[in-house]
Amino acid sequence: MLEIEIDGKQVQVNDGSTVIEAAAVAGSYIPHFCYHKKLSIAASCRMCLVQVEKAPKPLPACATPVTNGMKVWTHSELAVKAQKGVMEFLLINHPLDCPICDQGGECQLQDLAVGYGSTASRYQEEKRVVFNKNLGALVSTDMTRCINCTRCVRFTTEIAGEMELGQAFRGEHAEIMPFIEKTVDSELSGNIIDLCPVGALTSKPFRFAARTWELSRRKSVSPHDSLGANLIVQTKHDVVKRVLPFENEDVNECWLSDKDRFSYEALSSEQRLGAPMIRQGGQWKQVDWQAALEFVATGLRGVERDHGAASIGALASPHATVEELYLLQKLMRGLGSENIDFRLREVDFRADGKRAGAPWLGMPIAGVKDLTRLLVVGSFLRKDAPLLAQRVRQAAKKGLHVSAIGPNAEEWLLPVRNRALVAPSAMVATLGQVVVALAKEKGAEVSVALLGKLPETVSDEALAIAQSLASGRKVAVWLGNLAVQHARASELQMLAQEIARLTDGSFGFIGEAANSVGGYLAGAVPGAGGLNAAAMIEQPRAAYVTLNLEPDLDLANPAAAMAALDGAQLVVALTSFDSPSLRQVADVMLPIAPFTETSGTFVNCEGRAQSFTAVAKPFADVRPGWKVLRVLGNLLALEGFAHADSEAVRAEALAGDLASRLDNGVEGIVVSSATGPAGVLERVADVPIHFADPIARRAPSLQKTRDAAAPTARIAPATLAALGLAAGDRVRVAQGTASVELVAQADDGLAAGCVRVAAAHPSTAALGAMSGDLSVERA
Amino acid sequence: MILAGCDGDRTWRLQDYVARGGYSALRKILAEKIPQDAIIAELKTSVLRGRGGAGFPTGLKWSFMPRSFPGDKYLACNSDEGEPGTFKDRDILRYNPHSVIEGMAIAAYAMGAARGYNYIHGEIFETYSRFEEALAEAREAGFIGRNILGSDFSFELFAHHGYGAYICGEETALLESIEGKKGQPRFKPPFPASYGLYGKPTTINNTETFASVPFIMNMGGEAFLNLGKPNNGGMKLFSVSGHVNRPGNYEIPLGTPFAELLEMAGGMRGGRKIKAVIPGGSSAPVVPGGVMMDCTMDYDSISKAGSMLGSGAVIVMDETTCMVKALERLSYFYFEESCGQCTPCREGTGWLYRVVHRIEHGLGRPDDLDLLNSVTTNIMGRTICALGDAASMPVQSFVKHFGSEFEYHIENKKCLVPPEVQRAGSQIYVSPSC
Ligand SMILES: Cc1cc2nc3c(=O)[nH]c(=O)nc-3n(C[C@H](O)[C@H](O)[C@H](O)COP(=O)(O)O)c2cc1C
Ligand code: SF4
Ligand code: SF4
Ligand code: FES
């Protein structure tokens, strides 16, 4: 610890602290622009100059290390004179166009200019003009306002992992720009808007939509990926105008992914369902709630009477709230059906009934920084979990060694030291090899359950991974979406568990969606005798209740799902959006509130239950899903649907100690070292970041980004050549009888023999399962 | 000393250098296994001060290198020589490149560095090619490379050329540039001795500084010091330019009267009256001619006259010079060469230039001189590197010493020095003795 006196106040700070950090402890505010606690130190704006005892010149507080006994004055005459001098320089070439600037009212420069600027400018020359840059669909530029603090440059380089912006040219001609003809395509790009202290970088979708002081703001939680980023949602007249991060060091730090930030545009989409609709005689008709709910209750009772309760199935989105999921399963069980699931893209359910608890990450998100070894199995880490990937990126800089197993090796913008690039059908065997090699490295025996079930030979890649894990002090194994959606997911889980045991580490699941953990805790999984998501499609039900589902995009086998729902007698869809696929298969659509118009809870991958309240009044005749389900329960005369508010539902759903309900343990899965047949092409399906859920799909600006580009048939170059194809060829990709036409693309980040065809996209929705074999031929 | 014997033919060749006694210092050190401390002590005795501009004692600088540091350590020679008026390093590299190589090898030995780079000014490519040739010769002869002269000391040296950015001569910008990045100074601390090239301990010295080392080793620190005067050891190269009869490089003992140097340079062109001298490169404050005539050429005397010995570039101006125009030219240089990283320099250098420009062009305003002084005060001491100061000092000193000329410009919208006089002064003048 070091002693320092700041403005006469004694404080103690950690060794290695800078003066600006110490000042924060002492409660002294030092004006600054280039300094940001999450970025490297540039020491270039010079706004933070302070007086330091014995120093002849003012020193930059952001870059001056504290020494023991140092005395600092942040507001002495010398300091303020220096700060005012810098402010004058910052303003001479600034356009001072605050009245037409989106940043007005929340601008660091504007705020500080009030304190440090003078009323008139001594600069009488022509001001500099800097041409604007095209950074893509999300970030708007007014580069003349830029003060060259380089926060945006440092963000792209250090946090997002790729230098997409730089400061070109010198001196007064210095400009911030992307590479020639390039835009900023990072999935974290929106953060540069928050970082930019002036109005040089502003939000394109928000541009000129409102002034900051007109907005009311509330806390919320992102409904997208499994991280559960904390949000500040800003509304004007009950319309969401902007989403900003709510800082939570344990979860999203001060960042948001672009999906978290810009998906709100979908909330004002024309496809919002505003009133209940019933299909009668092939025609969709708007009805009032009373009529719609009675129709549903009568319909469900009718199916129950005619076919039995087990003929009713419920399919819920993993992006639904705990309250919704809980009441839906309660409703199903009240009706006497155990057929409920929210794991829509999974296919291997062998672990059901053999699990010790709800699957989760197996460690706190903030614990990533302490890891020394991480094995990621089957994940599109960067796009599936952008901010978790960001944490891994920072940890990798501090010595975390990352290994990966899977068919995909797309750029994660972090060093992956060891990688086994293998087809999906070889993933179990490869992970088995890692277990074998690891046991040997550790001089330990493998568990009895695995004896004789593991491969005999170990590949070099598997050995390297095992050696890396064996040398780690704090080890974690993460199973990604591809592993969870894998045809042999439970075997991967057994093997990951074994690695965790052998390394004394942790293992867990990254999680597909905002409530991948919450769904388990809410009981939205089939009980004894119930059907899981896949079985409900394979054995079509007479009636389905769906919760925020788009049947052609959200299930493991969209073609089969559409067929099953199409053939059902009754499909009740609780949905925020009116979608063509629902119009095709549903009989009634009940408009339920998206996350901004209801209270609810998401449990993120680390098992953190985060509740939020509505930030806006429901659109049109929309009602919160939990209320709709409660009324339905009442109409069906079921017990226990008397909740006064969503907190009561939550209290019931998440009763007891949550942490004790999280457990990745699994027993009794038979692991095999079999690999797939040689010579067949295997499908690898990612769920593209901006197509993963109904909200993101409808956010216009996100849909204009590079990440939302139409899927192609990605094939490893050698495989492409072996098929007699070239990149750019139009090809017909067929799975069973279904086929779609796509453009072939060479992808050297893909295992040989694999074809990567994205799921969850209209252009591939006609295909079948997300894994398994397929054929490719010239179209 | 460095340039002694370099007026013959092909003096840059290895055999020539060896014939002049070259590489004997390195040979002796390796043969006698002279301890590192002894070399540094010798340098301290010599009071060799950095020849790149700042005049920092070289022995002291070398002693900052963490010699016991286990990882890589680097050496960098600063041959960027971008300071207007300076052209001495160019001639050292052209006529005596091996003195730099030998100096660097000795430095590497003394500091335990295994690799060095010579960062050479990119516009005059001849110096770069010649240095590359010299490196090849030295490598061939075993003066650099693995196990130098059969000892267990190894040192690799490479040449690296810049692309003409003045700022790359600032030592940390130079390191960034070698690393392949945009040449921008780093904030210090940390200093290069602890966090330098690729984050490793690094020592940077000027070409002339390194070139002096073999001579000091041969003659001994004491003798070197005695060549000059106390606290100002040795000989120094002065690049004399401007209104003199024989512009060029002159290697003279520190402490030599300026008048003598001017004499060597053939005296004032056309016998005109001396008006002003910038004694240490464009970044040094200007000194009125009369004051300068009483100075001796050493760090302390020039400092007493309110300026700096800097890089030893002596720019002489006679009475035909318009000081406003001269300052306009200088201010334009710093405006163009600022790296743009830090606010006061990025914004302030342009402001200074524009104000001086408008004064020169008859658009000056009554309070412009106060404005210039105030802007320079706001830049000086508040920037990342010394370019901010370098841009400010000429402005302050010109205004201080020649304020009346500026005032005349502002009031009368024209120059105090009549145009025909200025024109006469800028005629290319061929000295009878050439
Ligand atoms: C803007 C700027 C430009 C500089 N250019 C040079 C240069 O061209 N050559 C040089 O030797 N030193 C230059 N310096 C000084 C170097 O930063 C450094 O002090 C010097 O190379 C150290 O060597 P020395 O101790 O041997 O003088 C420059 C400094 C600044 C601030
Ligand atoms: S664009 Fe904004 S964040 Fe980037 S350098 Fe300019 S002022 Fe800073
Ligand atoms: S003082 Fe000028 S040249 Fe030096 S770092 Fe700052 S902007 Fe760059
Ligand atoms: S905040 Fe310290 S220099 Fe910018």
From TrEMBL, chain A:
Task: Name the reaction it catalyses.
Answer: a quinone + NADH + 5 H(+)(in) = a quinol + NAD(+) + 4 H(+)(out)
EC number annotated for this UniProt entry: 7.1.1.-
GO MF terms here are: 2 iron, 2 sulfur cluster binding; 4 iron, 4 sulfur cluster binding; metal ion binding; molybdopterin cofactor binding; NADH dehydrogenase (ubiquinone) activity; oxidoreductase activity, acting on NAD(P)H; quinone binding
Cellular component GO terms held in the UniProt record: membrane; oxidoreductase complex
List the cofactors: [4Fe-4S] cluster; [2Fe-2S] cluster
Task: Respond yes or no to whether keyword Lipid biosynthesis is given for this record.
Answer: no
Family note: Belongs to the complex I 75 kDa subunit family.
The task this protein performs is described as: NDH-1 shuttles electrons from NADH, via FMN and iron-sulfur (Fe-S) centers, to quinones in the respiratory chain. Couples the redox reaction to proton translocation (for every two electrons transferred, four hydrogen ions are translocated across the cytoplasmic membrane), and thus conserves the redox energy in a proton gradient.
Q: Provide the protein name.
A: NADH-quinone oxidoreductase
UniProtKB/TrEMBL annotation, chain B:
Q: What is its EC number?
A: 7.1.1.-
- Name all NADH-ubiquinone oxidoreductase 51kDa subunit iron-sulphur binding domain ranges: 324-369
Q: Which InterPro entries match?
A: ComplexI_51kDa_subunit, NADH-UbQ_OxRdtase_51kDa_CS, NADH-UbQ_OxRdtase_suF, Nuo51_FMN-bd, Nuo51_FMN-bd_sf, Nuop51_4Fe4S-bd, Nuop51_4Fe4S-bd_sf, Soluble_ligand-bd
| Keywords noted in UniProt | 4Fe-4S, Flavoprotein, FMN, Iron, Iron-sulfur, Metal-binding, NAD, Quinone, Translocase
Quote the protein name from its UniProt record.
NADH-quinone oxidoreductase subunit F
Q: Which GO BP annotation is one of this protein's?
A: cellular respiration
Q: Which reaction does it catalyse?
A: a quinone + NADH + 5 H(+)(in) = a quinol + NAD(+) + 4 H(+)(out)
Q: Name one GO molecular function term.
A: 4 iron, 4 sulfur cluster binding
This protein's source sits in the domain of life called Bacteria
What is this enzyme's class at the first EC digit? translocase
